[in-house]
Structure formats: structure tokens, C-alpha cells
Amino acid sequence: MLYFSEGLIGKILGISSPYEINSANLIGYLYDGNIGTWANTGYLADAYANMGVFGMLIISLLLVVIFLIINSFSTKINKEVVVGLSVFSILSLNDGALLTTIFTGGLLLLLVILFIYSSGSKKENE
């Protein structure tokens, strides 16, 4: 397991990767023969690589909480607006890690924008 050694969490905690190259490049090299290939498979595969099955459960629960937060904003904002703003961040989970999507994929910014937009809105699900 990688224990988040390839990202910011690993750097902060001083955890080093057991591999000399990035795991996505290693998998790309093993299956495609090209070290430049990035093998991205989504948030569940990243969670499994970092913490095994337990990590998949924890990351999935975190994603459910995020979805519940996004859904709660739709009580004051039209659902079409919430879905339209959320599509890019949600689709990026197909090829990326949840923590990466939160911090660099715009998911945290989406939550902030929805919070600000919903707190100024007086509409109650028309």
C-alpha cells in the first residue's frame, strides 16, 4: 500500500513511496510498455492503492458526505444550477483521486460557490 505517499499527505507526514517512479507510471509501464503512460482508473482504485479495501470504504463515505452537502444546497438553489455547476467536478472522479479532485479539481471551490450562492438565495425549491 502507498499510504498516500505520492501526494501532499505523504510529504507532510514524511511517508516515502516504496517505488522509484509514480505508481500510475509504473502500472502504465507494466501493461503498456511505456513509462510515460499514466494509468488512471478513478477514485476507488486510488483509495485501494493507498489504503486497501478499508480506504475504499472511507473514501466512499467521504464522497457520500460530499454528495449530501451538494444535495443540501439544492433546497435553496434550482437543481439544474446545482447539477450544472457540479458536473465537471463529479466527472473528474472517473479518472482521478477524490482528495486530488477536492483540492485541485475544483470540488472544494464548487462547495464554496454553492454555499455562497445558496446563502444569498431566498428561493425554496420552486
Q: How does this structure look, described?
A:
By secondary structure, this protein is mainly α. It is built from six helices and no strands. It is elongated. The N and C termini lie far apart (48 Å).
- Strand residues, percent: under 5%
Uncertain spans, ≥5 residues at pLDDT below 50? none
Kindly name the structural category. mainly alpha
Q: Compute the number of helices.
A: 6
**What is the H/E string?**
HHHHHH
Q: What Rg is obtained from the alpha carbons, in whole angstroms?
A: 17 Å
How much helix is in the residues?
55-70%
Quick overview:
With about 130 residues, this protein is mainly α. It has 6 helices and no strands.
SSE diagram, text form:
Elements: H1 8-13, H2 23-32, H3 43-73, H4 79-91, H5 98-103, H6 107-120
List keywords for this structure.
126 residues; mainly alpha; 6 helices; elongated
